[in-house]
Amino acid sequence: MTFFGKLTRIKALGILLSAFVLVIAIQMIRIQTSTHAEYLDKWAKNYGVEVRTIQSERGYIYDRWGHLLAGNKEVYEVGVELQYARNPAAIASAVASLFGIDYNEAFASASMPFNASTSVYITLADFIPSNQIEQLAQLKKNYENANPFGDDPALPSLRGLVWTPHLQRIYPEGTLAANVLGFYTYFDRENGKGYFGVEEKYDDLLAGVKQKVLIQLDPYEMQEIPTAPAGASLVLTLDREIQSTVEKILDTAVKKNGAANGTVIVMDPKTGEILAMASTPRLNPNTYWDYEKVFTPGIPFNKAVSQVYEPGSIFKILTMASALDAGTVKPDTPFIDTGIIEVGGWPIYNWDRGAWGAQNMVGCMQHSLNVCLAWVATQIGPTQFYEYLNRFGIGHRTNIDLAGEEAYPLSEPGDPMWYTVSLATNSFGQGVAVTPIQMVMAASAIANNGKMVAPHILHAYIQNGQQYNTNPQIVGMPITAETAQTLTQMLTISLEEESSNALVEGYRVAGKTGTAEIAVNGRYSSNSTNASFVGWGPVDDPKFLVYVWLEKPKSSIWGSVVAAPVFRDVVQELVVLMNIPPDELRKSLQGQ
Q1: Can you tell me the distance from the alpha carbon of 343 to that of 420, in angstroms, rounded to the nearest whole number?
Q2: DSSP string of 451-520?
Q3: Please, which of 150, 234, 252, 322 could form a disulfide with 159 given CB 3.0 to 4.6 Å?
């Protein structure tokens, strides 16, 4: 080929390339100025990013020694991306055999037609453990080896079947401390809520943060997906071993005595720390959906804080404390018990309808004489008596850090439902309603030299690597230290002189029984009672305060027979678990 021929071909090629570039330029200009340009720009802005919710991992819950009570584990959601599914029958068969779900429902879901605007992804199962996902992954791999793209309808294929990890709340101890913990529910993967107990009270603190972020889908603009710091973890005042022991003792007592339900609280009377709080019934929070099976209507989740009831004779410790503190009576103040006293035109009788003759205040407490305590209340007078009850927190919430605390208003002079006889009946715990935790807080003033402590369940919380401890709170001093010590000795002597079922060998304890008749159809029934006991020890240096309540026991109506032995059983375990030496040994060691 000649030189001119080659030159001609080069010019032709140049012209063609120039024309091609010109066409591309014209097309670009056309696209930019076309009526669809604005639409395409909006599409890029709307669909070039994805909105994702970044959620903190929920904080863990531990007992005071670091035993895990609530945590999280990785589980999976299994679903089908409909545009890729090739063999709905194989998918349905796999999930039905591995996860136990209905084959027909799975087949119907996997067979749904793909529609970009409505049907893109279908969930088949959720909360699947990792070991089952491993089996599913191996099965999918085996099918892919024989049928890589799922195009052969004669061979099984799990193409389109996907699984996504997420966290599930778990309670490794099952029902242990369930009434205190509450539970966490899942409405969907992004939304959940704590119910009852600690899970509800500290829901926001445990949950951490939740925020929506924009994730760039353009690979040239993609950035690292942000993460949210974990929610705060909680360290409770509960002692796992004490809690477990108390629950076993309570369950045995409820069953043995044929009681409807029961509650036991163990608190440090100097700090207000709840060492154990057991109540029946209890729900396994891992299966919170059984709530309505476990709790019939009217049964609170945690009776210790949510159930008000008439406490009966344990309330007499507050009446006597008030009288001693006001100077109205002394331990040796004499009283002749005739078996009846009239207050406001109404006769008041003793629990046995008997007359106990010459007594002093120790004897009145030892024999739990209604007539004597009603007389004591009249000596104090209504104004001062109700002032003391308010100081003890009766009628008010303790503000314990648990969800669902209830309180029943204290009826006082001037209220429509208060009558003169109320002064007498209130003195021995009738016509007044409390929760167990209210009585525990009030009793702490007697066990703690007059200083009433706020009961609390949170020992500390851990956030961003820092631990923040809670401090004990003194919420009042309704009586003097001298009054508290005097009444403690009176109650100790009362138990010892009557050889109470509450006594613990080697340890001096103080306490009081309570038997409260339950109102049935507007009248008190002597066959249906609330049996209670509140006590503390060792009396010279109290380390524990124990409250026992058995509801409607059938074996006996009396708190001295039903509730006092439960107190003894709990204390016998406490002194071991808390490493409290017997009184004589402890005093000898202190003397050294």
Answers
A1: 7
A2: PEEPPB-EEEEEETTEEEE----EEE--S-HHHHHHHHHHHHHHHHHTT-TT-BTTB--EEEEEEEEEEE
A3: 150
- How far is Cα of residue 412 from the mean position of the Cα atoms in its chain? 33
Place of tokens 């429902």: 105
Say whether pTM exceeds 0.85: yes
Going along the chain from its start, the domains and CATH numbers come out as: 74-168 (3.30.70.2110), 240-591 (3.40.710.10)
The number of beta carbons lying within 10 Å of the beta carbon of residue 397 is 14
- Give the residue-averaged pLDDT of 430-459: 97
Least trusted range by pLDDT, from 148-152, 188-192, 432-436: 188-192
Beta bridge partners of 214: 51
Closest CA to 548 of 560, 539, 540: 560
Classify residue 309 by its DSSP letter: B
pLDDT for res 520: 76
> Do 539 and 489 contact (CB within 8 A), yes or no?
yes
**Would you say residue 70 has pLDDT above 90?**
yes
User: What pLDDT sits at residue 178?
Assistant: 97
- Poorest-confidence range of 394-403, 496-505, 559-568? 496-505
- Looking at the predicted structure, is the pLDDT value of residue 115 above 80? no
Tell me the mean pLDDT in the region 277-306: 95
Look-up of token digits 């061979």: 155
∠354-336-559 over CA atoms, to 5°?
Answer: 45
Indicate the SS3 state at residue 41: helix
Closest CA to 509 of 483, 482, 562, 545: 545
Q: Tokens 């007498």 map to which residue? A: 424
Highest mean pLDDT among 3-17, 19-33, 562-576: 562-576
Euclidean distance between CA atoms 385 and 371, whole angstroms? 16
pLDDT at 51 over 60: no
- Please report the DSSP string for 532-543 in residue order: EEEEEE-TTS--
Cα–Cα distance, 358 to 103 (Å, whole number) = 81
Amino acid occupying residue 9: R
